[in-house]
Amino acid sequence: MTETQNLTLVQAVRDGLFTEMSADEDVVVLGEDVGKNGGVFRATEGLYDEFGGDRVIDTPLAESGIIGAAVGMAAMGMRPVPECQFSGFMYPGFDQIVSHMSRFRTRSRSRFTLPMTLRAPYGGGIRAPEHHSESKEAFYAHEAGLKVAIPSTPYDAKGMLISAIRDPDPVVFLEPKLIYRAFRGEVPEEDYEVPLGEAITRREGDDIAVFTWGAMTRPTMEAAESLAEEGIECEVVDLRTVSPLDREAIVEAFEKTGRAAVVHEAPKSGGLGAEITATIQEEALLYQEAPVKRITGFDVPFPLYALEDYYLPSAARVEAGVKEAVNFP
Amino acid sequence: MSVLETDPEDMIRVIDEDGEVVGDVPDLSEEEFVAMYRYMKLARHFDERAVSLQRQGRMGTYPPLSGQEGAQIGSALALAENDWIVPSYREHGAALVRGVPLKQTLLYWMGHEDGNRMPEGVNVFPVAVPIASQIPHATGAAWARKLQGDDDVFLCYFGDGATSEGDFHEGLNFAGVFDTPTVFFCNNNQWAISVPRERQTASATLAQKADAYGFEGVRVDGMDPLAVYKATTAAVEKARDPDEDQLRPTMIEAVQYRFGAHTTADDPTVYRDEDEVEKWKAKDPIPRLENYLRAEEILNDERVAEIEASVKEEVAGAIDEAESVPRPEPREMFEHAYAELPPELERQYEEFAAVREEYGDDAFLED
């Protein structure tokens, strides 16, 4: 029988890093405060003592340098895992992400590939200052050549991170920091992969398919339980990887129910809810019984924390949105 | 010789750790000396209360400034009324000198957007959180004033870590090329969260980086408010009215130490030794200025007690005021996104308002 540990999501991230660093000397971690400090969220705790400063590298405060240097390392066959301390601080490195990280394979006709995993905590709800709360996965999902993974459980965090590190192509690995320590889950001590690009059904139901990911799986599940008491059964699908999307899983859940809602904390316009809706239009139009309902953040800059609880989709907004879709017309 | 011609390897100093005079004391009136001292006491007390509010759950994550009062107050006092500061996120002391009410600063860290809306006539840019990102703004704003025929000077604050970012290079490079009236003030507090100054650059000093942009860079004892005042005054004068062979910008590296954590979310005991902290605490800018002013008979026990009491009262009043401000209405998220609310945003707000009406505020708010 497999031994397991009861870990939080951030501990599972750390365990995934530990597992891959132990197995493969080419795996290195670099970023701000990842070394001696063990990461501002403790995602790299103890790794510096275990693997030393040449593999757990405290860098100067420079995201373009961190990501750009990781591109160079990856081109030479290493498997760097650069960290940006918050996703809101990735933008000085955005040029490296969209001009190079995503394109090296294409540009070099696969002579150079970039087996690198760019990690960053993302999302709101922790009463943090400006730029510490945004949810911008759509930026990266829009960029061809990248995969974008977002775990929502400790088990997935470790398994998906291992898959990302072993992936021959660059992965943006966004960690929902609101649920870094919100709950624990059983995580195998051994190494295992949770494949990227595969959604998982978190709850079965016949009335409506609700697609979500990251920290929003919690209010979605909460709303689903509450709606069940009123006789509305939600099929909740956690997409887990937002690029490439698991289009088969989306279509299958939709065909089962004929109605859908998408819950994401990112702003509505240009968000991935639109991509999921378009997938349904393209693949399952004849099954459609109601407009797809998007329950999302608003198209405004993420507010400071006095208002963030209003900004983030709450179970109440999920409930109201699901009912609208279920009661249509 | 101008103080700005000091070799960047040297350190501009006026009073030592005990408040003994070791350089030329700037020409300030008694009132100005006392005002400097009081601002520093006010900033320190504010900081202690703010950390305590965060610990009690009455405020969100907060970046403390203790240890850095000499650099903030000494530099901000060197500006003329129409000059500007372009802060990062730790310059609550400098902001105070420039007229930002304490209540505003508290509100900002209590998560209210209104805290970042500087009152009219207060020449302070909004808090900039992403490291170094405000540096090109300071260059551009100063450049604009120059093009508009004004003689305002812009004092831009950033930390040692910021000198590693691309924006630092681009901002200073533009300033040199376009000769903008900008003073780049680096609060080198030795630590960018857990990363020491030595890990930011292999350069011997940060000040010497100015040389590569074609203008002067100097190092000053950042825990000596009189030295900071002197260096910043010279830099501001040069920015406003340079000699024919001078470029306007200057970079000042103020060597100092953050006594506390990077923010209240940080635990510095993980990465730095208590011995080091104690060594720097001996350089505390407040007692050393106080010692000097006592020796000059500008301060005495009675005057110090008076100042301490008035500072406590002022901070307590600001906290009461800030805490009595109700949570903003959610509508405020929408109102400042554009000059006119686009129809889709109006629709999003209406939909939200209907759900809030039906489910009540408790369905949204955790506390």
3D architecture notes:
The complex is a heterodimer of chains A (329) and B (367). With 329 residues, chain A is α/β, with parallel strands linked by helices. Chain A folds into 2 domains: 4-188, Rossmann fold, CATH 3.40.50.970; 200-327, 3-Layer(aba) Sandwich (Rossmann fold), CATH 3.40.50. Chain A is built from 12 helices and 14 strands. In chain A, the strands form 4 sheets. Chain A has a 5-stranded mixed beta sheet, with helices on both faces. In chain A, helix 1 (9-23) runs parallel beside helix 7 (154-166), helix 8 packs across helix 12 (315-327) and helix 9 (247-257) packs across helix 10. With 367 residues, chain B is α/β, with parallel strands linked by helices. Chain B has 2 domains: 3-323, Rossmann fold; 331-363. Chain B is built from 14 helices and 7 strands. In chain B, strands 1-2-3-7-6 form a 5-stranded parallel beta sheet. In chain B, strands 4-5 form a two-stranded antiparallel ribbon. The model of chain B has no long low-confidence stretch (mean pLDDT 97). At the A-B interface, helix 3, helix 11 and helix 12 of A face helix 13 and helix 14 of B.
Layout: helices, strands, pairs:
The complex is a heterodimer of chains A (329) and B (367).
Chain A: E1 4-7, H1 9-23, E2 27-31, H2 47-51, E3 56-58, H3 63-75, E4 79-83, H4 94-101, H5 104-107, E5 117-122, H6 137-141, E6 147-149, H7 154-166, E7 171-176, E8 185-188, E9 200-203, E10 208-212, H8 217-229, E11 234-238, E12 241-243, H9 247-257, E13 260-267, H10 272-284, E14 293-297, H11 308-311, H12 315-327
Helix pairs in contact in A: 1-7, 3-4, 8-12, 9-10
Chain B: H1 30-55, H2 69-76, E1 84-86, H3 92-97, H4 102-109, H5 135-147, E2 154-159, H6 166-178, E3 182-188, E4 191-192, E5 195-196, H7 197-200, H8 209-213, E6 216-221, H9 225-240, E7 250-255, H10 274-281, H11 285-295, H12 301-323, H13 331-335, H14 343-359
Parallel strand pairs in B: 1-2, 2-3, 3-7, 6-7
Antiparallel strand pairs in B: 4-5
